[in-house]
């Protein structure tokens, strides 16, 4: 037999990172459906899609000539602006010397996980990339359980139990990753939790990575508060421009380190990783970010407007699901919902849908609803939870996003805006209504085809 020449052999790390995820399978299916010209209501994309603010776009154009390598920490002037911004707008103690600018907060989280010793404690549910990143750097992940009956709220008792359990198993649970406002639930950590957790983290000497990328996308019912206000000496705060300014593709994230010696040491490690990998964040983007982090009142008004619209669109979806009898925590920030369909476990089982991945595939195949299964966020598959994002529908392209903004500028009221400028959101809601009505009447379409069972 001829020897098959294969020049690429995977390292254990490469293999750890190459597990096919349910997200990938769903996305491939959505792409197939689109290629075949089928309609899909895409509630799976978690991307803020408002247009780039004209002043920021102008700043990028004006800085196109900036082509030098910049310092790995980021330009000093930008770090000064970021420190002021965080102190004033988010009430977080920040010093320019303790800030690094990176190509998205995702890369900075990865660098932090690489730099820090200890196993990772992850609340259930958590954003899809934390666990794979931990695995890529060879870290063990310990999940902190939560339940849909409590709205997936993170309880300190569950955290302390999970830490104790990890220690009993000779583990070294040194890092806690918090994310508030949360992807996928849209919930914020309450003040009472932040206060009691700070005390616990201090006693235990835990390092906290606080992912606050949605910190400025607040729905108004609650103010975002950073754990850094209560545990400044042990918290690294992550943020960036991707969400509140819809600049995900520009890849600019920030990390703010504790204003102490320990903070300086961790920053030194992350800076070393930065300088040996991505070198520095793109120069024109950093200079344009001076406007984004400056206190320009037009930019600030735009952030408030986009946030208000995220809140309106997310709450509209939430209210409709609640009216259908779906259990779904009320969102307080970001643009996500995390409903579960356990109430319909029996009729779903009768059509061969037992896990959340099967449910996601079933909704896609039969109702053209693209969602993400809760298990990719660490929820138990049998909880039948799904993550829905409100950010994509009716803002599929620049033209539609602009039409929504223009309508608001012309004074169209919220009700009319949702009724007349959101045909796809309303279409998705109608599909969910039909799905639930079918389940309740046991009129569900014939048992799902084979792929449902294979996920
Ligand atoms: C919770 C969470 N953290 C981090 C990120 C990554 O953001 P960035 O664009 O800054 O890398 C995302 C993006 O979806 C996210 O949802």
Task: Describe the 3D structure.
The chain has 455 residues and is an alpha/beta fold. It has 2 domains: 12-50 and 299-454, Alpha-Beta Complex (Aspartate Aminotransferase, domain 1); 56-295, Type I PLP-dependent aspartate aminotransferase-like (Major domain) (Aspartate Aminotransferase, domain 2, 3-Layer(aba) Sandwich). Helices cover 44% and strands 10% of the residues. The chain contains 17 helices and 12 strands. The longest helix has 27 residues, at 297-323. Residues 46, 104-106, 127, 179, 183, 211, 213, 240, 242, 248, 253 line the site of pyridoxal-5'-phosphate (PLP).
Q: Can I get a quick summary?
A:
With 455 residues, the protein is α/β, with parallel strands linked by helices.
Ordered list of secondary-structure elements with their pairings:
Blueprint: H1 12-16, H2 22-35, E1 41-42, H3 54-62, H4 76-90, E2 99-102, H5 105-115, E3 120-123, H6 130-136, E4 141-144, H7 156-168, E5 175-179, H8 191-204, E6 207-211, E7 235-240, E8 253-256, H9 261-276, H10 283-293, H11 297-323, E9 336-337, H12 345-350, H13 356-367, E10 369-370, E11 372-373, E12 386-389, H14 398-409, H15 414-420, H16 423-440, H17 450-454
Parallel strand pairs: 1-10, 3-4, 3-5, 5-6, 6-7
Antiparallel strand pairs: 2-8, 7-8, 9-12, 11-12
Bound molecules: pyridoxal-5'-phosphate.
Largest sheet: 7 strands, mixed
Total DSSP helices: 17
CATH domain fold name of the largest domain: Aspartate Aminotransferase, domain 2
Low-pLDDT residue spans: 448-455
Helix content: 40-55%
Level-1 CATH class name of the largest domain? Alpha Beta
CATH superfamily of the largest domain: Type I PLP-dependent aspartate aminotransferase-like (Major domain)
Proportion in β-strands:
5-15%
Oligomer: single chain
Report strand order across the widest sheet: 2-8-7-6-5-3-4
Instruction: Determine Rg (CA atoms, Å).
Output: 22 Å
CATH architecture of the largest domain: 3-Layer(aba) Sandwich
Q: Give the overall shape, derived from the CA principal axes.
A: globular
Number of strands: 12
Ligands (ions, cofactors included): pyridoxal-5'-phosphate
- The structure class reads alpha/beta
Number of domains: 2
Q: Overall mean pLDDT score?
A: 93
